[in-house]
Amino acid sequence: MLNTDRQLKSEPNIAKILGAEKPTVASDSTLSRALQWLCPDELKALWGKLLHKIRRNKVYQSGTIGGYRVAAIDMTGTGHSEKLSCSLCHGNIHKVVFSYIIGADPHIFLGLEVQKPGEGETSAAQRLLQWIHQTVGNWIDIFAVDALYKAPFINAAIELGYHVVIRTEEVRLKIIEDAIGLFSQREPDITGVDPDRLYQYKIWDSYGFTTWTEVNVPLRVLQVEELHIKEGTISRYWIITTLQPQHADTLTVKEIAHCRWHIENNAFHNMKTYWHLNHTLCHQDNAFLNALWFRIIAYSLFMLFFFRHLFHLAAQLRVKKIMLVHLIPILERSLALPLHPT
């Protein structure tokens, strides 16, 4: 809003757009006070209703990866301040766990959960998982996470009817040690070159690992080796999943694990760089949570509007490699065009 105010200061219609008596917007401190009065659960419930409508409108009817609707869960730090703090702060920063649709567009947030001081990331993630299930049931099929998400999270997801895909480089895990021993005795199941011809890959794939005894079901492990064609470097990582071979083929599981990076490269990077996620608007509990919810709702509605109604333009931008965020100032200015007389 402040950015829009700066751009449209000379436009008389900003007052009509915002419903204000004069063409200006609230200061940070005024906005903080207003946000503190609002209950975050109201915004959370509002977004839950919007998710229901998105589901009814069959936005992801064909899935986002391999016919499945896939979301990532991860934590990022936000709201850094050297001077201010609140009961949700970890030192001088907030830690927030987000869930985000990955794979096909439109990318939107499913929800968020603040990590409370003294608790781990996966505890907040399990609360978020429960809220998503209570809100939209099993609309999401698979959650992609990193190696931090251990047996309690996997079991919680299984109990709710979800599948999990975990990308890891932790060689010391017993299940990974067993997989390395098994795969060293045979040739890879699949070899190939990625579509962008950046690297060659070898993939070993096997199901029925039971050595992760804390997990309630047998697991499937993929070992992936990638040779970077230009640099000549080799990387190796493993994918642990509850998806059985009849659920998803090897390349689909690999793509899901790869697309987990969307939550970091698309969501967190874009939100912090262009949507002011790092801006310390307020350090009061309710106000901070409300500011977060307003941000992810605004971001998600923008993505839904753009990819649902301007999909031809989206295709052109993708070909020309123009960032979507560059359209925001154009849309802001279009709001201040002279109103047609009635």
Give the uncertain stretches in residue-range form.
Answer: none
- The computed structural class is alpha+beta
* Oligomeric state, counting identical vs distinct chains: single chain
In angstroms, what separates the terminal alpha carbons? 28 Å
What's the pLDDT, averaged over the residues? Answer: 85
3D architecture notes:
- The protein has 342 residues and is of the alpha+beta class.
- It has a single domain, classed as Transposase Inhibitor Protein From Tn5, Chain A, domain 1 (Alpha-Beta Complex), CATH 3.90.350.
- 41% of the residues lie in helices and 20% in strands.
- The protein has a nine-stranded mixed β-sheet with strand order 3-2-1-4-5-9-8-7-6, with helices on both faces.
- A hairpin with a 6-residue loop joins β2 (94-102) and β3.
- α3 (28-37) crosses α10, α4 runs parallel beside α10 (285-309) and α5 runs parallel beside α6.
- The two termini are 28 Å apart.
- The mean pLDDT is 85.
Topology at a glance:
Blueprint: H1 2-7, H2 14-18, H3 28-37, H4 40-56, E1 70-78, E2 94-102, E3 109-114, H5 121-136, E4 142-146, H6 151-159, E5 163-168, H7 174-183, E6 190-193, E7 199-209, E8 219-228, E9 234-241, H8 250-259, H9 262-274, H10 285-309, H11 311-320, H12 328-335
Parallel strand pairs: 1-4, 4-5
Antiparallel strand pairs: 1-2, 2-3, 5-9, 6-7, 7-8, 8-9
